[in-house]
Amino acid sequence: MPIVLNIAEGSGSRGGLRRVRYENALGSSRETQIPDYGLRR
Q: What pLDDT, on a 0 to 100 scale, did the predictor assign at position 41?
């Protein structure tokens, strides 16, 4: 949910604040990814 909210807030923001919101969304998406522990081929 934080990803969606940060993207929505970023689209309504300007300048540096927009970038911060998008960076927060990116960070949240990276936190939710499941590690593959080297099993992916």
A: 60
Q: What whole-number distance in Å separates Cα of residue 19 and Cα of residue 10?
A: 7
Three-state SS string over 7-34 comes to: HHHHHCCCHHHHHHHHHHHHHHHHHHCC
Per-residue tokens: 3: 């990803």
Q: Tell me how far apart the alpha carbons of residues 10 and 37 are, in angstroms, rounded to a whole number.
A: 32
Report how far apart, in Å, the C-alpha atoms of 30 and of each of 12, 14, 23 are.
Answer: 23, 24, 11
Q: Which residue type is seen at 40? A: R
Banded pLDDT at 10 (limits 50, 70, 90): confident
